[in-house]
Design a protein that fits this description.
The structure holds two protein chains of two kinds.
Chain A: H1 7-28, H2 34-37, E1 39-46, H3 53-61, E2 69-73, E3 77-82, H4 87-97, E4 108-116, H5 118-146, H6 156-185, H7 191-221, H8 228-260, H9 266-300
Antiparallel strand pairs in A: 1-3, 1-4, 2-3
Chain B: H1 12-33, H2 35-49, H3 52-56, E1 68-69, H4 71-74, E2 76-83, H5 93-109, E3 117-122, E4 141-148, H6 153-161, E5 166-171, H7 174-187, E6 196-202, E7 206-213, E8 220-226, H8 228-240, E9 246-250, E10 253-256, E11 268-272, H9 277-290, E12 296-304, H10 306-359, E13 363-364, H11 366-395, H12 400-432, H13 435-466, H14 475-478
Parallel strand pairs in B: 1-13
Antiparallel strand pairs in B: 2-4, 2-12, 3-4, 5-6, 5-9, 7-8, 8-11, 9-10
Classes of the chains: A alpha+beta, B alpha+beta.
């Protein structure tokens, strides 16, 4: 399959997807969950009848919670989102909803409660950005180191750069999808999403390295010199089966987590699924073409 | 090119012995991981068969080391408190915050939680260009309290939050008082108390509080004994303020403001007031359990009831088992015999990893279990790499034994390099994350490390064990997918 030959087509597709994602991120923004913005989340389950939205709102009026977002979950559960409150208010709300303190004999059972003040969210944002930056730097350094002996015809740093560009592609597109999901369906982004991004970084490079490794090996093995392009193309073709199969097993597992796992990991799994799918795509159709283009550019200068 | 595997070639006979060892240890590890199933089996067999002999051989697994379950599975509370160090001088920061931590830990130990966590955390300095004027000095320290498995979360929060904060305040000079009163009339934004101002003497200097009853009036009174340092400060204060009031504040409210009669050098003070015996006793108790040297405020809480936790656990386990089965089906369908070997290696891998989780111990959260399941999918990865290589070598016309050796040798560099990148990100996640994220990073990291080992050693050994001339003919089962030899 002539991948390198059609490299401009593939790169264009990727480029368009990245642009659309960037658009989504900057125009719609990511819907940040309470981990980042602060606020409260209360999940309760009513034993018998679940009251209507209007009724719930009336009950909560007295507690002065500002804007309350009500979401139904399962058959009898309700998830409430409102501003950060102290423990006293928390207890008042529970009482108003019919929940006693402790779990026995309550008409309403509290399932979970998160309340996060604003300062923590800021710290978390910082930490997340720092983590992502560190990961990218760490990976570039590692690739440059691992491929240090492959100087001709393309220097080892180029492998790192090509890998990073593929990585950026892998991380930007799922983020764009989540920006769209946040805008249209109110899906929130929390610490697990950041964790997913970091995992995607790690895994995507995983795949890309396999291709590069083969390129390196073929460079060593060459009996008669071959144009770089042809050799890279051959390397990619040789490793396709492996790349796809590896991703398949992981995707299989992730699909199962997404559909059968708990609520909290559903979108986490979705983010990973997208990241890994695009990760595989980029290893085959983006990273290697970039290597070739780089080499062509440096040859001309 | 010299045909040489990573290590010296393994002979089929030795390989077969190794396989048996793997099998045996795998089973033993499996029993260690989930002893309840083994014990149940043993009990059932003894009961069913009714052989008296068996009851003597009742080989129940004695070591019941349970898994450490995280907050979101056991249920419990994760609380974050902000410590206000604005009244403490900078060199004392560390000792003060450590003192607070100790006090809270003592309180928390009363709840009967199996392994409470009370930790100090310092916020990272601002350096990504964000202007943060609201963060005044002394607001960088946080206290993290984790109570996994606590039964009554709300009472626990109340008790922690109620730790008393003791202060001694002295009278302000006339002119200062006037100035503040003036400002208050003007802008009404001044928060300072016009009558009393803070002194360096606080709850950190309290050694002990005791309940006494006045001999004549039988009124309850509380006697405070200060530490040496506290006594010194107290002596100074009393010397300076003879004839003036010295107010004692508890949690921001004054409880007593006696007039100082003379300089007190022994570091002992008496609080009299309108106490009922009950409230005095409570107050003494609270003061002794720990007068908080520093005020704290609850800024974040995450609580999960154990019922929800159980649900999450069941769903995660479900997902895990089905995930494993799905991978099994795929591997056997696509890779046939080597596929079966890789699944055996995977089982062994699962047994080892779970055993490690028990031994370290690793706290399993829902995300952590997801990380483990993910690593199962990735563990197969290394095997796939090797098989593809072997296929290539076979296609290139090599003999089976050689193909296997070559396959492993060449694949190792790929496996190593690609897994290291995942390990780098796991390390970063662990270092920078909250406990939930750390759980995930840890399970993923351990999973990757062990998978490298199991793929190389176990699968390789299995393949070599099966290596024999006669299997040459059956190359078909070594090739994969829908291709033909």
């Amino acid at each position: 399959m002539n991948i390198i030959g059609h490299k401009y087509i593939f790169l264009t597709i990727s480029g368009i997807l990245v642009l659309i994602s960037l658009f989504a991120i900057f125009v719609w923004g990511l819907k940040l969950g309470i981990d980042f913005t602060g606020g409260s989340l209360l999940e309760v389950e009513f034993k018998d009848q679940r009251p209507e939205t209007a009724e719930i709102q009336k009950i909560l009026e007295k507690s002065d919670l500002g804007n309350v977002v009500i979401q139904f979950t399962g058959e009898r559960g309700v998830i409430l989102r409102f501003r950060h409150v102290d423990e006293l208010t928390h207890q008042q709300i529970l009482k108003a909803l019919g929940a006693g303190s402790g779990e026995r004999g309550a008409a309403t059972a509290e399932k979970r409660f998160n309340s996060i003040g604003p300062t923590i969210g800021r710290d978390l944002k910082q930490k997340s950005i720092l983590a992502l930056l560190l990961a990218v730097v760490g990976i570039v350094l590692y690739i440059a180191f691992a491929f240090r002996k492959v100087s001709k015809p393309v220097s080892s740093w180029n492998y790192g750069i090509a890998a990073i560009l593929a990585l950026v592609h892998d991380v930007v597109i799922p983020t764009g999808v989540f920006a769209a999901l946040g805008h249209f369906k109110g899906v929130e982004v929390d610490t697990l999403f950041i964790t997913a991004l970091l995992t995607i970084l790690g895994f995507s490079v995983h795949d890309t390295i396999v291709v590069f490794d083969r390129v390196r090996e073929n460079l060593h093995k060459l009996k008669t010199p071959e144009p770089y392009e042809i050799m890279v193309n051959r390397s990619v073709n040789e490793t396709i089966a492996r790349s796809i199969n590896t991703s398949l097993t992981v995707l299989l597992v992730l699909l199962i987590i997404m559909f059968l796992g708990g609520e909290t990991t559903k979108f986490f799994a979705l983010a990973l699924i997208m990241g890994i799918t695009f990760g595989t795509y980029s290893s085959i159709f983006v990273a290697s073409p970039l290597l070739v283009i780089w080499q062509n550019l440096t040859k001309r200068t | 090119m010299v045909t040489q595997g990573v290590k010296k070639s393994l002979r089929p006979r030795t390989a077969r012995i190794l396989v048996l060892i793997f099998l045996l240890s795998g089973v033993l590890l499996g029993i260690f991981d989930a002893p309840q199933y083994w014990n149940f089996l043993v009990d059932k067999t003894v009961a069913r068969s009714g052989w008296p002999l068996f009851s003597y051989l009742k080989i129940r697994w004695p070591i019941l080391l349970p898994f450490r379950l995280g907050l979101d599975i056991q249920g419990g509370a994760h609380l974050v408190y902000q410590a206000d160090l604005s009244n403490i001088s900078t060199p004392d920061y560390t000792s003060s915050i450590e003192a607070v931590r100790d006090v809270i830990e003592r309180r928390v130990n009363l709840f009967g939680v199996a392994e409470p966590i009370v930790q100090v955390e310092k916020s990272r300095p601002v350096f990504l260009g964000e202007a943060r004027p609201e963060r005044a000095a002394g607001q960088d320290w946080k206290l993290i309290v984790e109570l996994a498995g606590v039964k009554d979360i709300n009472t626990a929060i109340r008790l922690i939050g109620d730790t008393p904060y003791l202060e001694f305040k002295e009278e302000r000079a006339e002119d200062e008082r006037q100035k503040i009163l003036e400002e208050q009339k003007k802008t009404q934004q001044v928060y300072e108390d016009p009558y009393f101002k803070s002194t360096p003497l606080t709850g950190r200097h309290l050694k002990r509080a005791q309940l006494n009853f006045d001999q004549t009036t039988f009124q309850p009174e509380i006697s405070l004994e200060l530490t040496d340092e506290g006594a010194k400060i107290f002596a100074e204060l009393t010397k300076k303020n003879v004839g003036k009031q010295l107010a004692i504040y508890l949690d921001g409210a004054p409880i007593s403001a006696p007039v100082v009669r003379e300089e007190i050098t022994q570091g002992k003070a008496q609080i009299t007031g309108n106490f009922t015996p009950q409230s005095a006793k409570e107050l003494v108790g609270r003061l002794n359990a720990g007068a908080l040297p520093v005020p704290i405020k609850l800024i974040a809480q995450q609580t999960v009831q154990s019922s929800l936790g159980q649900e999450s656990l069941l769903r995660s386990l479900n997902a895990g088992i089905i995930g494993f089965l799905a991978v099994t089906v795929f591997m056997i369908f696509w890779y046939r015999l080597p596929g079966i070997f890789s699944i055996l290696a995977l089982l062994f891998y699962t047994a080892i990893v779970l055993a490690i989780f028990k031994l370290i111990p690793v706290t399993l959260t829902v995300a952590g279990i997801a990380g483990f399941i993910l690593s199962i999918g990735m563990a197969v990865d290394a095997n796939i790499l090797i098989f593809e290589r072997i296929k290539e070598e076979l296609r290139a016309g090599k003999v089976l034994a050689e193909a296997v050796g070559e396959g492993f040798g060449r694949a190792w560099t790929s496996i190593r390099d690609s897994n290291i990148s995942s390990l780098i990100t796991s390390a970063i996640l662990y270092w920078l994350g909250t406990s939930v994220v750390q759980g995930f990073a840890l399970t993923l990291g351990i999973g990757i490390l062990i998978s490298m080992f199991s793929a190389i050693s176990v699968t390789r050994t299995l393949l070599i064990a099966v290596l024999a001339r006669r299997f040459e003919k059956l190359r078909f089962i070594f090739l994969s997918g829908l291709s033909r030899g």
